[in-house]
Amino acid sequence: MFTGIVEELGTVAAIEDQGDALRLTVRATTALDGTVLGDSIAVNGCCLTVAAADGDTWTADVMQETLDMTSLAGVVPGDRVNLERAMTADKRLGGHLVQGHVDGVGTIVRRSPSEHWDVVEVSLPADLARYVVPKGSICVDGVSLTVVDVGAGSFTVSLIPETLARTTLGTRQPGDRVNLETDVIARHVEKLITAYLPGATP
User: Fold this and answer.
1) DSSP code per residue over 141-172
2) Number of domains in the chain
3) Cβ neighbour number for residue 65 with a 10 Å cutoff
4) Residue 14: which domain range?
5) Is the Cβ–Cβ distance between 32 and 141 less than 8 Å?
6) Environment class of residue 82 by beta-carbon count within 10 Å: exposed (0-12), middle (13-18) or buried (19+)?
7) pLDDT at residue 192, rounded to an integer
8) Separation of first and last alpha carbons in the chain
9) Is the pLDDT reported for residue 201 higher than 70?
């Protein structure tokens, strides 16, 4: 479980293509502090398991399902990635409850810079639209954000200077793909209430 508060920007150090999977090696500092084999680290919002660590790098195996469902299939050495270690029970929940299980991929539609923040519009897959509401939470590339507005096939978020400086969202441009995770509480509520709504389907 994560909070969507990015701890650092890591750098993709190497990729080993294994056909139906890949081994992803990431260079990091903060994310490796206290980390041991088997720990979870979110990479652009995708929960990955530390399979090896050596100095300032760590390696994870990325299976085909993850490649199919996320933007990790397109990363290349040198790319910056958002990193967050799994939360512990004694830490503040600064963002919202994030599983690291990506629901789908959106695309940056436009960004409108202002003096102190950017408004960014992201495309929203139709099957996820019902979980996204104004002032609700959404995780974009591992970053916990508050939805400003929801339109036909897209939503907008406002990015403060801290987010622009400390995450990849500061440099994402129109056409770039981003991982989306909707509010897990909304999905569970929908699943539970369908038992009491004749004819309803999740």
Assistant:
1) TTEEEEEEEEETTEEEEEE-HHHHHHSGGGT-
2) 2
3) 10
4) 8-85
5) no
6) buried
7) 87
8) 24
9) no
Distance between CA atoms of 49 and 36, rounded to whole angstroms? Answer: 10
pLDDT band at 115 (very low <50, low <70, confident <90, very high): confident
What pLDDT, on the 0 to 100 scale, is given for residue 89?
84
Give CA–CA dist 137/147, Å, rounded: 6
Residue in the block written with tokens 């050495």 = 77
- Reply yes or no on whether the pLDDT at 43 is more than 60: yes
Residue corresponding to tokens 């190497």: 14
The pTM of this model reads 0.92
Mean pLDDT of the chain: 94
- Whether 34 and 110 map to the same domain: the answer is no
Tens digit of pLDDT for each residue in 132-152?
Answer: 999 999 999 999 999 999 999
Closest CA to 80 of 180, 169, 15: 169
Q: Which CATH number characterizes residue 35's domain?
A: 2.40.30.20
Structure tokens at 80: 């910056």
**Residues 127 and 176 occupy one common structural domain:** yes
